[in-house]
Structures
1.
Amino acid sequence: MAKPWAKKFYNSKPWKSARQAYIVKVHGLCERCGAPGYIVDHKIELTIYNINDPNITLNEDNFQYLCLKCHNNKTFAKYSAVQEGLEFDENGEIVKIAPLSN
Ligand SMILES: [Zn+2]
């Protein structure tokens, strides 16, 4: 969830309108898999150092619209939470990879 220092930004009008405009622009679909999107993600992650820099925070070039699964994949991949033999199901939950059936 949003970190305390990012709360003000995520509640700001400029972000909400930029976010909404971006969702319309990508037709509301996940840019990775084409499923209905869930979250406008910043490619360059927001930090306390760039949170006041509109070239990062409000720049469409830094946006990507993702569904929950792709967002979780990205987030968890970053922390290498997925070990061998595990995968994400359609809800973004980590599950054991089912053995291939014959
Ligand atoms: Zn997706």
Note: The mean pLDDT is 86.
2.
Amino acid sequence: MSFFQKLFGRAAPDNELPATLAVLGADMHSHLLPGLDDGAETLEQSLVLLQQLRDLGYRKLVMTPHIMGDFYRNTPAGIQGALDALRAAAAQAGISGVELACAAEYYMDEGLARKLEENEELLTFGGEQRYVLFETSYINEPFNLQEMMFKMKAAGYRPVMAHPERYTYLYGRFEELIRIREEGVLMQVNLNSLTGYYSAGAKRVAEKLIDAGMVDMVGTDAHNLKHVDSIRAKVLLTEYLPKLLALPLLNSTL
Ligand SMILES: [Fe+2]
């Protein structure tokens, strides 16, 4: 009996795929790599999540563990090691048809400032596009937000702001989001924001970004089964998902 069969009690399905999210091709924001942050804790959990995202139609997963101060002191080598382990486990479990890759979700803090200062290579995705996924505090605007975004661009990266709809310091300041994007920062909305999963405010801003055509990428930000269940059971039914998927998103280019 294969590892997959032991885990799921059945053989791996081949082609039971709903097409809705298949148009995206790639997810570029998740916490599926095991044991690195507040996402999957074990390889077994990672495999279940991986299988479920594949069944939602994804063909590539760029997994992005948190790198955040003293909380998540992940390094490129550690992340690569977890990716190698997950690839091996997926192969052993017979899970195919989904490419696995990694980058990181950089928290905008002194650690990131230091890496930029010291020209330390950041983890990127999108090949030569050199996309760097970053997040900030949900509540407090970083005092050096502009400077950090400028430094990322000056170092040859294309910054991607993770879930702009979740930052309460930007609520009621939509013109600030417009300005940030006009300065060359790409915007990545979370699928679960469309249901109000995080908050009513996040849903409102996500919808506004979609209406304004200001979404460049869309991510699952999947940490656990609850997130994936919500995408399957609720996000797929939202009125805004078709509007979101009709935008010229970059996911399929990754
Ligand atoms: Fe995340």
Note: The pocket of fe (ii) ion is lined by residues 29, 31, 105, 162, 221 (CB under 6 Å).
